[in-house]
UniProtKB/TrEMBL annotation:
GO terms, biological process: proteolysis; signal transduction
Domain PDZ: 88-156
Name under which the protein is recorded: Carboxyl-terminal processing protease
Record's signal peptide: 1-23
Keyword vocabulary terms for this entry: Hydrolase, Protease, Serine protease, Signal
A GO molecular function held by the record: serine-type peptidase activity
Organism per entry: Marinomonas foliarum
Amino acid sequence: MNNTLRRQVSFIFIALLAQPVFAAQTPEGNQEKSKLPSAEIQSFVETFETIREGYVEEMSDQDILNKALKGMVSGLDPHSEYFTKEELVDFNELTSGNYAGVGVEVEMKDKRLTIVAPVDGSAAAEAGILAGDVIVKIDNTLITDLGMQDIVTMMRGEVGTTVTLDIERDGEIKHFELVRRLVEDASVTDKWLGEGIAYFRISQFQGDSSEEFHLAIDKLKKENKIQGVVLDLRNNPGGVLQSAVGVVDAFIDTGMIVYTNGRHDMSKSQFTATEKNTKLANTPLVVLVNEGSASASEIVAGALQDHQRAVIMGTETFGKGSVQTVIPLSHGDAVKLTTALYYTPNGRSIQAQGITPDLVVPQATLTFEKGQFFVKEAELKGHLGNGTGGEERTSSDVKSDIGELAKTDFQLYQAVTILKTLPKLSHK
């Protein structure tokens, strides 16, 4: 590398670092810029020269610089990333809930590419990929030492194309062949579970999820009075903080929802409930969570738990309690930087811990013994009537109470069971 190019690379690198978004604070509150270490800058320039001239494959100067910047940012923590202009477009599509891919949320956990949750209705969910699965290989490429953006790029592609994933689960390798599709996920679904119990499922927190949720509440309210609510956040990997706040706001009318705290003033914020947005302030509520519930899902569960507003049920959550801020740079690239931790209203940090449910209920598959036989009083010949005109119940009625819900979703069945007791408990 000649001296002109060396000076150019040095200038580029210094220009990128010399104007940080967050300036250091002196004890007096005045901002000051730390001086760049000249020896390390010289080492960077020499390393750049060595790669440019001696690496086995020819690389452009821009590619080398991008890899250097990506390495600098990704080395901070699993959630910080450097985006080129093109990658920033892809990232914005992901957070909008409209993209072509297989539909999984992934995180690096102990240097293993772990699936936080499959997206509802995606190719991955339909193929049976589960939270906690570890991706070992994408197509024919081992994911070892790949950057997160490289991994996302490999899993995305044109609609209708195929990608293969080798996944480790319980010590075994399972092979999945998935067809990429356009993921246009409506993040909120709703239905009735009977007896006035409304079920709301939020698959991820997109920019408009709060509005979707409030519209879903209004829709069900027009159909019937809501006597109880199951809020299902299982395998919800998180998303937009403000959407999570809006969901909590539907259930509480005053007090703190969440606050964030970081090194700099712009990283400190707090969100409180507003009475005008509260639609279900006194309705009995059960929130379902599991190991795939992360980030914004944990904000919702933690806030409702601290306010003693809901029974949190399921299994311990993922434990992502950090806040990422996408900071645009002057030339069109951006840095997604971890800038703060978030805290529940009672000051709990969820980072690397998660939310422990009030009632730990693992998912289970129920089996029923065949050939069971029992009778009830109503089946005895000559039995007396109820006396108050109540409907008689036979053994077949008892079996129907167990129903398909207990067989297909034991956690949800338990949530409904608990909900039926909450109104009685509230009158004691």
